[in-house]
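Researcher: Go.
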Amino acid sequence: MKKLAPTMTSLLAALWLGLGITPMLHAQTTAIPAAPVASAPAADVWNYKTRRLDRSAVDALLAKPKQLVVIDVRRPDEVTAKGSFPVFLNVQAADLAQRLDYIPRDRLILTVSNHAHRAGAAGDLLASKGFKVAGAAGSEDYEAQGGTITRIVPPVKK
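Model: Structure:
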């Protein structure tokens, strides 16, 4: 990927923020050890066409970052509290249909939420609009399966 001039980078960041899309590319991060493996609740029924991915499938996608875009569909407060993957776009599920023009069409898409249900719905929407959706993952599920989630340290207010 080409490096953009600082003014273009600033312009894109302002555009993303103005549209409610948060690029988390250079956030200060802290790695948190993974929680013990836990199984999904019995009532956790998957009703989406998008594949629900486990840790190994997510790790395989993350190993090829130039071919992937991770879209986290949670609210910013959830992302801050629960963490996510090292680099992602944050487009809330309710805003996704209005933000399609800003999502790259030349990469596989991994959608993310806490336990993958909003991510599954987002994946179905994106696939119906012609995007290449690799699958949906829950950041809490990924962490429970031994994956490492990154916590974003909010900036200190002055």
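Model: The chain is about 30% helix and 20% strand.
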